[in-house]
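FW: tagging you since you asked about this chain on Friday. Here's the raw sequence from the shared folder, copied in full. Didn't touch anything.
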Amino acid sequence: MCTGFSEKINGDKKEQTIMSMLKNVPDHEQLEKALRDSEEKYRVLFNQSSIGIYLHDMDGRILDVNRHACRQIGYSNHELLKLTIFDLHPNVTSTKNLPKSRIKELWCQWKPGQRHTYEGEHKHKDGTVFPIEISTGIVEYGGAQKILAMIQDIKERKQMEDSLRESEKK
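HL: got it, structure written out here
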């Protein structure tokens, strides 16, 4: 820090402004550190979550995903950011997923802060289909509305439900 800086630039007022700015450098550094700490905390929580998290725009273009989402679906982060969430839907007529047009229609009716939970299906990179539970809603981010979706693989839960039904039949 240049505490000895005393050159007069356009009078005393300019000098006082420069000296004042130099005195606030430690505050600025503390703010930058707080911002870095906040960003690190967000990334740690986001990436170490035990549920798949997707952020996508209103057209379904994937903007961000966490590590669990990548492991869950079998794609790398780089690969997923080139896809839409509709690319993850199975191409079969028996899917639980609504048609793309209906999903987008529903998104337009949602309000920020509302949560919507339903079951659907995704397909792994290798094409195998698995059941999911989606907890999703609109978030305001970057001056626009986005969709935040938490995806849970419920294959084991569905198998247990099927086993219980079979057991009850007997």
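FW: Confidence is low (pLDDT under 50) at residues 1-10.
HL: agreed, and The chain is about 40% helix and 25% strand.
FW: great, closing this out.
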